[in-house]
Amino acid sequence: MTELSGARILVTGATGALGSRIAGHFAAQGAQLVLTGRDADKLQALGIPAELFTLDLSLPGAAASLIQTVTSAGQLDGVVAAHGVVAFGPVVELDSQTLGTLQALNQTSPIELITSAIPALLASKAAGREPFVLTISGVIADMPTAGMAAYGASKAGLKSFVSATQRELRREGIRVLDTRPPHTETGLASRAIAGVAPTMPQGLDPDAVAARIVAAIVNDEKDVPAELFS
């Protein structure tokens, strides 16, 4: 089992419905947190003891710069990439700005976080800790859906990267896992950067989803597909 007490963990997207709940679970188990988001007031309002960083991870190089800043201040034992955006609409209406933002936030910046964090995570392992990286690609990564093609592509690309990286870093003692919860009532669909969300059935409770994600970390799981959230 992975011990969270005393572990220094970075959570991006910490003001989101899942990121904030995951951070709350970590804090309750004694982790030292580094939290990021795009809104400084919302970060402060979380009321979670942590180092707080306000930044836009869609900007080129922002993820790598964040890791450099975080690791220069101390150890890094875990990374949870909980940030992301969604867009809806047919492919004939897809514009380059929407595509670029989806790719930057859902795929490129998590990849930069992971690759930039590897030296620090190797140092964590060498110090006898249990380093990990967790991503949340969601069920869409396994289920291409009409009206969500670009969003699904960005998440499927992340899942593919994580799957291959997991194999590469396993021998180094760094655990990398992807989680793919079904539709969850996070409110993300109402904040789409393009298009309007279709009518969806009631989603999962974000408290339950966050708890399941943290349990996957603690229990040393390596992959959490949608069916393991039921």
From TrEMBL:
Record-level Gene Ontology MF annotations: ribitol 2-dehydrogenase (NAD+) activity
Classification via Pfam families: adh_short
Statement: the UniProt record of this protein carries the keyword Oxidoreductase: yes
Record carries keyword Heme: no
GO cellular-component term (any): membrane
Enzyme class: oxidoreductase
EC number: 1.1.1.56
Keywords: Oxidoreductase
Domain of life: Bacteria
Family: Belongs to the short-chain dehydrogenases/reductases (SDR) family.
Name this polypeptide is given: Ribitol 2-dehydrogenase
Source organism: Aurantimicrobium photophilum
